[in-house]
Amino acid sequence: MTFKEKLETNQFVLCGEIGPPQSCDDEVIRRKSKYFKGFVDAVNITDNQTAIARLSSIASAKILLEEGVEPIIQMTCRDRNRLAIQSDLLGAAALGVRNVLCLTGDYQKFGDHPEARGVFDLDSIQLIAAVAKMNSGFLLSGQEMKKAPEFLIGAGANPFARPFEMRLIRLYKKVTAGAHFIQTQPVFDLETFTRWMGKVIEMGLHEKTKILAGVMPVKSANMLIYMQKEVPGVKIDEGYIQRMKDSNDPKEEGVKIAVEIIQTLKNIKGIRGIHLMPLLWESITPTIVKEAGFIQ
Amino acid sequence: MPNDLMTLDQPPITARERKFSRVMLFFEDVIKVPVFHCQHCGECILSSTGFICSQNCPKRLRNGPCGGTGEDGSCEVYPERKCVWYRIYLRSKLLKRVSLLYKINKIHNWNLESTSAWLNVFKKRIKGIILFVQNDKQKIKDIISNDI
Asked: ipTM of this model?
C-alpha cells in the first residue's frame, strides 16, 4: 500500500528522513535505506538541508525507488526559481516520485556557501499552490500539460516558533493552498504542541489535511543544548535535557525519550502519523519503530 | 486553491509607461522609503501587512514568517533585528487587521520591480490599498468557516 493510499484510508503513517551525502556516493543512500525499508511508509529526502550542497534530492529519490522505499522529496525555494522548480518537479514525476514536501528552505547564511545568492522566487505557500496547479494539469504560465503529475503535496509547520497565532495563520494558508499532509518540526515540548494542536482542531484544519508530528531521537544532551541555543524556532523541554545529562547511557535514554514522545503524540486527537527525523542516526529507526509498538 | 497565483503583466508595461513610472516612483519614494523602508517591489501589499513592508524580510517572504523566528521575535538571519513578520503580526493585531493576514499573496512579478505601485494600482495590475477593516474577529471566523 502506498503512502498516499494509507493516508487516504486514514491509517496511522510513519515517515523517516534521509540526508543525502556531500558526495556522489549512492551507496550511502542505499545503505541508509535499509534502516527504513519495511519499517516506515515513506522516507523524506532533504534538499540541501541547512543550505549545504549535497547529492540532489530527486536523484536520491530515484535511488530509493530502486531500493524499494517510497520517497518524499523535499523541494525548497532557496535554490530554484519558478522555472527550475517546475522542471525539476516534472522530472521527479517522470522518474516515479509521487510525494513532495514544499518548503521555503533554510537561509544560505547557515550553510557551507554563505556567500550564495538566495532565490526565494516563490515562498512555501505559493509553491504548494503551484504544485496543486500542476496537479490540475497546468503549468504556472497557464500552459496545459498533456500529462499532469499526481503529487501528494506536503508542507512543513513549526508549532514552536513565534508568534503562535501567526503559525496557525500560515498553516491555514498552506491547507487552503492545497497541502495534503503536514509534517511538523520535532516535538520536544509537548505542552506547546498540545496547545497548538487544540487550536488546529478548533479551526477544523485537521479534517482538511493530515498532520504528522515530528520526532527526533537524539544521542546526547549536548545535541539538545545545541539545538536549543543555535537552531532558531526550536523549543526544548528542560526536563529532557536534564534526563539526558543524568543518564549513564545517553543513547538509550534518547531512544526512551523518543518512544515516550511518540506514545504521547499517538494519543493526541488529530495526529495521523509520526515523522521520524533521526538526524545522523538513521540506524536507530528500526529500534524505535519496534519499541514504539508499530512493528512486533 | 486560488486560481490566479501570479501577478501578470496585464496590461503589458510599455517603454513610455516605464519612463513615467520613474517619475511617479520619485514621489512615491518620498513617503515610502523613509516611513516604510520600501524595497520597490512594485507590487505593494503594505495595507494588508499592517503597514510594515514585508519585503524587508531577508527571504522576501510575502505570506508570513519562516520557521526561524526566535523566542524573542528575532530574525534568524540577522538576530539583532526583529523578524519582519513578527512585527507585522503585532502591528496587525494592534490595528485590528489580522484578518488580512489570512489572504494568500500572489507570486511576485519581477517585471514590476522598481516600478510605481501607485501606477500599477491605477492600471489594475495589482489590488489597491485596503483602508478600513471592520469586525476583524468576525471576518477571521467567516474566512475559516467558508474555507474549511
From this structure: 0.96
